[in-house]
Specification:
By secondary structure, the chain is an alpha/beta fold. It is 42% helix and 17% strand.
Length: 379
């Protein structure tokens, strides 16, 4: 723990990327101290805040006050809290506003919201005037532990998610855990899907000390959902530490190190695609189901014991996450996955657990095993 300004406490994780390095701040009360956390070199840059209506209503005034800037230096744009906002239309709205306020000095962009806001804002920052500074201020649990970290920014095309994007690191990631108190339960569950993911792969990441993360999460699920201060701060910081280390090893996703972060995602993307990325099932719920399916594939491949699979399934069930394939869709999920693999050299790469906290990559899983697991998981 590191004491900071105005007697608030936070944890600081540094993402070491040479000239692209930045800090991730995790703690309570950070929103009210935001001017102390944004790098001082941007004190004179005009600011564009990109947010959504809900976050603007709940926390917008606090953010604006804490920036300690004249009002004419702060501009706000609100976008819909929907995957459909990751579009060229939204991107152009942000670019138009940046152009209005940044004719003389490059503006500073603040991405103040969940993963959608972070993705489209980051892409705008990466491309406007060949790159302007931006800061991630994630307001959802999922964004705080995962999507705000690592510099992957993108917008969607009708054909698929994130087809137009870039690698562009923020200047800071500021995770104020107090804002999580205003989230609905569904959003806490959404984040828990990614948190459990980190608990199933952390042993693959060297030179970190996060203890037995799976046991910590399993033993503290109630405290996590109740957002108990010390518990949520510790778990979010540990997940951020793991993500930071993976990003350090493979900033541009060229060395095959980041692939472990896709645990559960091959199945999850197929389910999300079937439901057209609607809000029927959140990303975290689909990842949770994907991790169960990945575990069962690994079991059939003889790579993990049944008792470990049971532990994984129980942790996901106890978190209230999706643990059974929705009825009547298994054949369509198989078709979607078969379609996707045509674009990956004819193979589907799976990240599969072979222990609690340990995963491996397999390109040789027989299609019959995949089909069997999907069909069995619908029962």
């Amino acid at each position: 723990m590191i004491p900071c300004y105005n007697h608030f406490i936070m944890k600081t994780i540094t993402v070491n990327l040479k000239e692209h390095s930045y800090n991730i701040f995790v703690g309570h009360g950070l929103l009210q101290n935001i001017s102390n956390l944004i790098p001082a070199k941007y004190d004179k840059n005009p600011i564009l805040i990109v947010t959504n209506p809900t976050v603007a209503k709940l926390h917008g005034e606090d953010l604006v006050k804490s920036l300690k800037r004249p009002k004419d230096e702060i501009h706000i744009i609100q976008i819909r809290d929907s995957e459909r906002s990751k579009s060229f239309e939204t991107y152009k709205r942000i670019i138009d506003d940046l152009q209005k306020i940044g004719q003389k000095t490059k503006p500073l962009l603040l991405a103040f919201g969940g993963g959608v806001v972070g993705d489209v804002s980051g892409f705008a920052a990466a491309t406007y005037r060949r790159g302007i500074p931006y800061v991630q201020i994630p307001t959802t649990l999922l964004a705080q532990v995962d999507s705000s970290i690592g510099g992957k920014v993108a917008i969607d095309l009708p054909e698929a998610k994130n087809l137009v994007g870039a690698f562009y690191q923020p200047k800071a990631v500021i995770c104020d855990l107090d804002v999580l108190k205003t989230l609905p339960l569904a959003e806490i569950k959404n984040g828990m899907g990614e948190i459990i993911k980190y608990a199933l792969l952390y042993k693959n990441v060297k030179d970190i000390n996060v203890g037995n993360l799976f046991a910590d999460i399993s033993d503290n699920l109630t405290n996590m959902f109740e957002l108990k201060k010390e518990c949520i701060e510790t778990i979010v910081a540990k997940c951020a530490q793991i993500k930071a280390k993976v990003v350090e090893l493979d900033e541009f996703d060229e060395k095959d190190k980041r692939i472990i972060l896709n645990l559960g995602h091959t199945f999850a993307h197929a389910v999300e695609s079937y439901f057209q990325y609607s809000k029927k099932y959140t990303h975290g719920e689909c990842v949770a189901l994907g991790m169960i399916l990945a575990s069962r594939v690994s079991l059939k491949m003889g790579k993990i014991s049944n008792i470990k699979v049971v532990q994984i399934v129980e942790a996901i069930k106890r978190s209230g996450l999706l643990s059974v394939m929705p009825k009547g869709i298994s054949s369509e999920i198989i078709k979607i996955m078969d379609y996707d693999k045509k674009f990956i050299d004819g193979k589907t790469r799976f990240v599969l657990p072979n222990d609690i906290g340990k995963v491996y990559v397999d390109e040789t899983v027989p299609i019959d095993v995949i089909k069997q697991v999907i069909i069995e998981s619908e029962k």
